[in-house]
User: Fold these one by one.
Assistant:
Number 1:
Amino acid sequence: MDLFFTLRKYGWEPYGASLRKHGGTVYIMARKDGRDALLMTGEDDPLFSGMHWAGGACKICGLTGANCEALRERFPFTAPVSLHGKSVTIGLGDRLGLCTSAHVAALRGTEVFPVLGQQSTRELLLTGRTNRDMMDATAWQVFRSGYEGGYSVDGDHRKTLAEILEAIRDGVTMITLDCSDHIEATAYGLSSSEAKRRCAQAFPSELLWLWEEHYCGKTFPIGRAQSTAIRRENFWQMLLTYGGAVLFAESIYKEAVLPCGRPISFELSIDETEMHTEDYAHYFIAAELCRLGVTADSIAPRFCGEFQKGIDYIGDLEQFREQFRSHVAIADHFGHRISVHSGSDKFRVFPCIGKESGKRFHIKTSGTSWVEAVRVIANCDPDLFRRMVEYACEHLEEARQYYHIDAKASNVPTLEAVPDQTLPRLMDDTDIRQIMHITYGALLQAKTTKGTPLFRDSIYRVLQEHREKFYDTIRCHIRRHLLSLGVARQE
């Protein structure tokens, strides 16, 4: 208590949950003049660089990359680990680098293992961040919140060897390999003979012989009273569609994941296509990965219906349930878990995912915390929110090159006519929610004619000034996801 009194006397607001001791040193994070710092008293810890204060009795350390490396060394619970052996895991994207404390609070009392840092190359580009920025922001907030339950960091939707090597070098503990550039999406529109001819051009003859011998016209058990069949009439289309993705996954795994010398969770994403993944195609991919010595912790198929950004599932629930059950049976057969991408706000299918998976799944949420942050801005700074929505609508077509959504700017009402108190509820409107979901890059990167940030500083200022409301909004929204999935209890 004396330490807290002293810090407050000098204008610092301590984060009580961060208080830790190591040897003769006391560590605590605190905030002053809108900035966080790591403070220590007692014996000096030479791992951290900083300036001494109060006659040398206290050391103030900035939240630098070097000090974050020291933090992970001194307090290993702030360092990420892989997802090996975990049953229920959730990816919690944080485009702002502010949401980890709220995400941790949402997980309290559950056995869900979190991926607290999760950004794709696309998101890093659009937010102007790096892998290290993502990892350091996560580690500092883990320490600040007092969370010691472990977490992972995902180099999400990486498409090239260079991107994956960079992410692994920077310390990620999970790689999600986006295979979309190696999936021939038009193959099922070809005749069997044409698909076979193109397979002969794309793959070695001995490999084609092996694939045909092992899979063509065969039926495979995938669980109790369940099986899947790879029929001759669509065998060559399947090979042409997914054969390249399998070989790409093998090369990445053996050139980047295996040689790194530490545990890396490896997820295969085959969901970035217009066509849904047939169960027999999932079986072929999983069987080939096993044959090739590739250990996939999870595979993300493309499910029926639509998993558009920021809104609920669009499609037939019973069709989804039947298809999802088959994919789970295949995953159980080979020992990996099903991964559900674009899982934000898919409340219609969450109960099915939780039940049919036997609570063995990974689900990715990405922009939902950003969207809920925008809701807080609507509540706390209506004029800023109106300007953000107007700018987002103007730049919607630029954002569409990265994301598929149905939203139309023409459906957004004139916000000047909307009362301030009504604005937060607009974030439940499908069009506005989707537009704000995908235009985060335009908003965060926008500059005035003088080159200063147009929105970024104001966004961070409002969320920092209303931290309690911001954290509680994010916590409640993520908690709602967990409750619907059946992996958390009502508080």
Number 2:
Amino acid sequence: MEAVKATLAHFVIDARASRFTVQAFATGLLSKMGHNPTIGIRSFSGGVKFDPDALQGSEFRLAIQTASLGVQDDISDKDRREIESLMKTQVLEIAKYPEAVYEAPAVTIHKLADALYSATLNGSLSFHGVTHSQPVTARVALFGEMLRASGEFTLRQSDFGIKPISVAGGALKLRDEVKFSFDLVARKQE
């Protein structure tokens, strides 16, 4: 087993070259007047070990700083501050839960074409003080010393003890399900 791990190249995520967002969806009587906020995740780190020749991957880990989440939509500064304040204090409770971590000890890799792969991660997400299994599928492209992985997954906030935001007496609220989209760039480390 150790001989296999020694052949895996270590790739570290470059957050500045990556994109990671959360899409929330409005519901309720006034949802047509509300919007579906897109939240950018600005501070995260992690990496994966990967061998494209043996089609093996392991030890994927991603840590997100919850305080780094911010509204990306083109809205007024007042609305942005209000949404971010609610999100950070009442929804994410960033003082109590400053980090969310996704870990997958093994990654299943399938070659799709030259330098293009499909990766399946059966990992666990520790978020808001709760840990649940969270499968993730990604398309992976390998460009020499750089790896790029993209995909999306959904989760229900209530599974992690989070109550979706509700305003105007419940006439406008966010759905329980949110969609995460990622386009991660990772660079090979020596």
Number 3:
Amino acid sequence: MKQFQVKDSSSDVLDISSNTRTVKAVWSRMNNVDLDNDIIVPEAFTKTLAERGPSAKNMIWSLLDHKADMSHVIGKPSELYVDGDKLVAVTKIVKTAKGEDVIKLYEAGLINQHSIGFSTIQETEAKDTGVRTIKELKLYEGSAVLWGANPETPTLGFKSENKETLSLRLDNLLKAFRNGNFTNETFALIEIQIKRLQAELESESTPTAQALEPKDQTDEQVIKAITQFNNLFKK
């Protein structure tokens, strides 16, 4: 399984109902080569929606700006389905101060971009064009964003922290995930945070954690944490 990624998708907001606080929006576009030289095929969502979607374990979140904490949760999609080349989500926005702002931002047309957070399960890459075709993925969340997230900086929220701090946070999250007594909803948020932290730590290392030569104790801690993570989420 590949590390946590985000992908800009669409400016389509299909419907907004202020009375029911419901937003219908396109989270992802498929069958087109995007700015990352990737193609997501519709079948990539089949298994993850069947296992994690609203009619299954209901583990997929609607967030703001890919931030997996309670202050940025705006709901969970009640419907999430593939329609042609679109991944469509219907979300009832929670009744919080943040939720009130979100509804107003949608109505004003200020939120018109959405992006998904996911890990790839199966992919292929064309040797002649370098185009990557994503055939299966694990979907964690869809985010409403004021501006499309930069695909080169999927973990922007962690950039101000050093490697040692990130490693310690990852270690604590792993312990909480293994030993904690949380609700399924909180476990799902912890998983997203772990995936993002791993992505940030790996981006600061050489191409693969397995090939990294430890230079100091912090590097050793990073490698250990990433190895524990990979074992924990091994498919």
Number 4:
Amino acid sequence: MSTSPHPVALTLGISPTKRGFGWVAFDGPLSLFDWGSVFVRGEKNLNCVRYFEGLLDRLPVELLVMEEPSAKVHRSDRVSALQGLLRSSALLRNVEVATYRRDQVQRCFSVVAAQSQQEIAEAIARLFPDLAHKVPRKRSAWMGEDRRMAIFSAVALVLTHFQIDGTDFVESMKPAA
């Protein structure tokens, strides 16, 4: 996707993982502008924050959307700390931050009968065909989560924000009959 300067303020979705984070940028409720994944080594949180700040320098971000830290969702201490660092970094740059719980995301996608991460990723791919080739295969119980799933988690968070904010997009995600 495009990485050229963009005149319109963007909504940035972030989904931290144990290896880095997935991100998406929207310039409107159904207008995906850019996306990517960040995978780091060494000082993971420090390197993730540096990359995140590079995104904020490159893109005119108005709003950051991320998952709300929750006792019900198990995150490693490092990933929980990373969520806080990313949030703080955005706030220091005067970027508004919106957080949503996993159950809010699932409620948003329940209209299209998508509850699991895999089902949500497939619903998102129907809405944004440019991402269809990124949908991971369904994983077996013994497999770790595919790196690409972080992109779909970030999209799901942003779409949840837009849905709660009043944009109805769910009809577009329903499978063809």
